[in-house]
Write a structure and sequence with these properties.
two-stranded antiparallel ribbon, Rossmann fold, alpha/beta
Length: about 170
C-alpha cells in the first residue's frame, strides 16, 4: 500500500512509520520543512495516489501548553486540519483518512463511549485542543456524508512507550 503520514516525526508517527515500512508498505512522511501544513497542499506536491492517509500532525505539547496557547492552538490546528481535509477531498479522495481523536474531547460528565464523543463540554485545561479534534471529526463526517469518502478516527485513552520504541494504544 501507498501510505501518507503527517506527524511522522512525532511520538506516535515515528513508531507507526517504522512499523508500516517493516510490513512492506510504501510510506511518504514529509517533515514540516518538506510540507508546510499551515498552507494548502497542491495536487502537484504529491501526484501519487495514496491508499491511506494517517493524519497525526497537531500543534500541541504536553503539560500546561494548552492553557497558555489556546488562541494559537485553535488557529494552527484548524489550518492544519482544514488543509489536510481539503487535500484529501480534492486530490486524494480514493484514500481512507485515518486521524487520531483524543479522550480529552469527552465531557467529564459522560462515560468514554463513542456516542458521547461530541457531547458536553470538554475539560477546561484542554478545551481548545479538544474542540480542534472534534472539528476534524466533524469535517471528515461532512465530507463522507456529501462525497462518500472513507475515514476512521480511533480515540486512544492513553499512548505511552519506553524511548518511543513501542507505542501501546488502549482504545475504548
Amino acid at each position: 500500500m501507498k501510505i501518507f503520514v503527517t506527524g511522522g516525526n512525532g511520538f506516535l508517527g515515528k513508531v507507526l512509520c517504522k512499523k508500516l515500512i517493516e510490513l512492506g508498505h510504501e510510506v511518504t512522511s514529509p517533515t514540516s520543512k518538506d510540507c508546510n501544513l499551515y498552507s494548502p497542499i497542491r495536487k502537484t506536491d504529491y501526484p501519487i495516489s495514496f491508499d491511506l492517509i494517517f493524519h497525526l500532525a497537531a500543534w500541541t505539547q504536553a503539560g500546561d501548553f494548552c492553557l497558555y496557547h489556546p488562541g494559537e492552538q485553535w488557529i494552527n490546528n484548524q489550518k492544519i486540519n482544514t488543509n489536510i481535509l481539503e487535500w484529501w477531498y480534492k486530490s486524494q479522495n480514493q484514500a481512507k483518512l485515518i486521524f487520531i481523536g483524543t479522550s480529552c474531547s469527552y465531557s467529564t460528565a459522560n462515560s468514554l463511549v463513542e456516542k458521547n464523543y461530541l457531547l458536553g463540554e470538554p475539560i477546561d485545561s484542554l478545551y481548545t485542543y479538544a474542540f480542534t479534534k472534534r472539528m476534524l471529526l466533524q469535517g471528515a463526517m461532512a465530507l463522507s456524508s456529501q462525497f462518500g469518502m472513507k475515514w476512521l478516527c480511533p480515540v486512544p485513552s492513553t499512548l505511552y512507550g519506553p524511548d518511543q520504541q513501542k507505542v501501546f494504544v488502549n482504545i475504548r
